[in-house]
Amino acid sequence: MNHQKSRLGLAVLALSLSVTPALASGQAPSLRTLASARGLLLGGAISGELFNADNPDEAATINREYNAVVAENAMKMRAIANSPDPDNYLFATADAMVASAQKNGQTVRGHTLIWHDSAPAWVYEIQEKTAMRAAMTQYITTVVKHFGNRINIWDVVNEAISDGPGNPLRNNNPFAVAGPDFIALAFRMAHAANPAARLCYNDYSVEGLNGKSNAMYALVKGLLADGVPIHGVGFQSHLDTNFSVRDSGMQANLQRFRDLGLDVQLTEVDVQMVGSGSEKEKLARQAQVYGELLSTCLAVKCSAFMMWGVSDLTSWRAGGKPLIFDGDYVKKPAYGALIKVLQTAGK
Fold it and tell me: Any signal peptide, and if so, which residues (predicted)?
């Protein structure tokens, strides 16, 4: 298929997207249909490709298969706030994505309010505690109120824990200027701006029982003890076909967060194909990992299973062919594995 990258006006194309029709008699159920029947949010990250008229398969796949979406980049701070002036915040792309989701009956996860890797230059210029706290408060309040009840799930803080020995908080996080309680501040401000929203901490390499997931557990347990309004934890799950759900202790890890009364969500799932073997063997192993991830998610009564993209064509890890649709939007064995789990798990 020929998938060109030209784009038309976001607003015009957003309005052209239609709600996924009801299943015709005898038609196989979609992921969306099966997930919705379980009360599970299942979907993925969307980009400007949603509005690419030369690639209609993107929008068609999203609207057929996903009951939830998350902006891959359009809601990050660098995309919205190149200027500290809230009158100059850039919401057009994100608004178009939300409008499309509303039109198609999809839930939107907000991603992400505070992340060191998406901070624009002006944030790094702030070196005084009071000024940083004021800037964080202004940004979070403006963004969360802008979307209001159109977005009731937010990744408030993303990737604040380092990968270094002992897994302390990152020492390169510009928001730390606001003080050691900057994470708690972010959650309190988001809650004040939208008391109805479910607020999450999100991170990577925390899927199994390990030092980093222990650090995350201690972090969120401390936030809860201090009365901070945190409601969920996002496990990104950027993995490869060598990952073992069993050997990593993933179910026990997720369960301990559920036992704190928190929502558990897999938020950025993709599984790169690596190692030796034929393409068929790699696809089978990828399908196995996807199936085990969803089974584990359901076993702990997770509330969301989100993939980081739609097809291998536009994935940020395209070389590893990590998603459930190939570059031509054809269903891979991993798609069938998810369908099977949704049809059979717990029955």
Answer: 1-24
Does residue 323 form part of some domain?
A: yes
pLDDT-derived band of residue 26, with 50, 70 and 90 as boundaries? Answer: low
Say if strands 304-307 and 198-203 run parallel, antiparallel, or are unpaired: unpaired
Pairwise CA distance, residues 229 & 138, whole Å: 18
Residues 304/259, Cβ–Cβ less than 8 Å: no
Q: What is the CATH number of the domain that holds 107?
A: 3.20.20.80
As a whole number, mean pLDDT of residues 314-318 equals 96
Query: How many CB atoms neighbour CB 102 within 10 A?
Result: 13
Q: Per the domain annotation, does 5 fall within a domain?
A: no
**Catalytic residue among 268, 279, 281, 292, which?**
268
Instruction: Give CA–CA dist 53/9, Å, rounded.
Output: 10
**pLDDT value for 23:** 47
Write the CB contacts of 301 (distance below 8 Å, at least 6 apart in sequence).
Answer: 258, 264
Provide the mean pLDDT of the chain.
Answer: 93
Which element (helix H / strand E) includes 41? Answer: strand 41-46
What separation, in Å, do the N-terminal and C-terminal C-alpha atoms of the chain show?
A: 39
Active site residue 268: yes
- Rounded to whole angstroms, the Cα distance separating 107 from 68 reads 4
Per the annotation, the verdict on 72 as an active-site residue is no
pLDDT at 20 (0 to 100): 39
Supply angle C-alpha 249, 200, 195, rounded to 5. Answer: 150
- Residue 347: what pLDDT? 73
**What is the spatial distance between Cα 143 and Cα 147, in angstroms, rounded to a whole number?**
7
| Domain encompassing residue 219 | 10-14+29-344
Catalytic residue among 49, 72, 159, 207: 159
251 belongs to a structural domain: yes
Query: Which of 22-26, 66-70, 199-203 is predicted least confidently?
Result: 22-26
Count of structural domains, the chain: 1
Q: 56-65 vs 31-38: helix axis angle to the nearest 10?
A: 30
Tokens representing residue 43 in the block: 């979907």
